[in-house]
Amino acid sequence: MATATITADEFVRRLDQLPAPIPMGRIFGLAKKGTVAVGMDADVVIFDPESKGVRSARTHFSKADRSIFEGFDVKGKVERTIVGGRVAFENGKLMAERGSGRFIARKPTHFARQPEVKA
Asked: Is there a contact between 57 and 36 (Cβ–Cβ < 8 Å)?
């Protein structure tokens, strides 16, 4: 959105309110994802499009000691991530507890139906 021709409000409206032909969760075979509604997984990302920073392996939550994006200037930053109704990331700190994630079994998506892709 750094060079967007729409406002942040319009961006959110398009993502949230306009009817999509196929909800994102369904595209990836995840029935309880992609919609904010009662009974769905409450996964939300709060994003600051104006924040600026530099990518570095030192600030990522990974065991890798390098990043192919090392030193890249970036605009936009995740401020908070809420997973299953609980804050998992906030103000640069990973708050999710080890083992709090869960495996979600899913059916193959439309990509698996392509002859060149082995399921």
From this structure: no
